[in-house]
Amino acid sequence: MSFYRPGRRHRRGCCCCRLCIWTTIAVFILLLLAAAAAALFYVVYRPHRPSFSVTSFRLGYLSIAPSGVKSKFSLTVTTWNPNKKLVYVYSPIDVTVLASDITIGKGDIPAFIHGKRNSIVLKSSATNSSQPLGSETLTKLKAAIKAKTGVSLKLRLDSKAKVKAGSFKTPMIGVRVICDGIRAVIPASGKARPVVSIADAICEVKTLIKIWKPTFLF
Fold first, then answer.
1. Residue-wise over 70-96: b if at least 16 C-beta within 10 A, else e?
2. Count of H helices and E strands in the chain?
3. Which UniProt keywords are listed (predicted)?
């Protein structure tokens, strides 16, 4: 004759419950330690994001046809590190020029180290000879260029950077700089040089954090 012993299943359930509780406690403690370390880092170093500004932007030529976009830009960006104790280490920067969110120029800026309380002038040239354009994209670009107030351009800088404070180093974090407010007036004749205004250009710095596949901007 066999007997039913419910006590064993109950003990197994208790063990699983205890494991979940201890795991939760351990995760909570790790989160508290991470928060405390972040708070201590902020108190000691008072970190501030670097600032970027467009100081020069020239358009050599811009030709749009069904066969693609042909363009040439030369630009200068100045970046300022306001921190007294932090150094930024940048990977090479990908430069993208957009009109109506369509890429019309690509370039790059070499890797560099940005010292404390220091400004650095970054120069780049961007060119483009893209694949054939679809009719919708072509119409959108032509309409933007023919606008009386000029075509609105956007400058995007994508890179990775880490922060150094003495012997302490952070992992590489994605950085994206978006500069809006650039306007270019392109004469219809094609003989006069295009005029680019950066008087209203404003740059915003964002950090990109990847959690598995999605990318989050902060």
1. bbbbebebebebebeebbbbbbebebb
2. 2, 13
3. Membrane, Transmembrane, Transmembrane helix
Closest alpha carbon to 79 in 113, 126, 127, 42: 113
Averaged pLDDT of the chain: 84
> pLDDT of 31-50, one tens digit each?
887 777 666 656 566 788 99
User: Nearest-CA neighbor of 170 among 218, 209, 203?
Assistant: 209
Give the span between the Cα atoms of 39 and 159, in whole angstroms: 26
* Alpha helices (runs of H) in the chain, residue ranges in sequence order: 6-45, 135-145
What is the spatial distance between Cα 93 and Cα 107, in angstroms, rounded to a whole number? 9
Question: Could you please report the per-residue DSSP string of 64-98?
Answer: EETTEEEEEEEEEEEEEE--SS-EEEEPPEEEEEE
Whole-angstrom distance, CA of residue 95 vs CA of residue 120:
16
Structural domain spans, the chain: 1-45, 51-217
HSE, side-chain direction, 13 A CA sphere, residue 184: 27
What pTM was estimated for this model as a whole?
0.78
Give the type of residue at 206: K
Residue 44: exposed, middle, or buried by beta-carbon count in 10 A (0-12, 13-18, 19+)? exposed
Beta bridge partners of 196: 184
Structure tokens at 147: 């606008």
CA distances from 156 to 16, 56, 98, 208, 213 (A): 51, 15, 8, 14, 21
Q: How sure is the predictor about 154, in pLDDT bands with cuts at 50, 70 and 90?
A: very high
Cβ atoms of 145 and 151 within 8 Å: the answer is yes
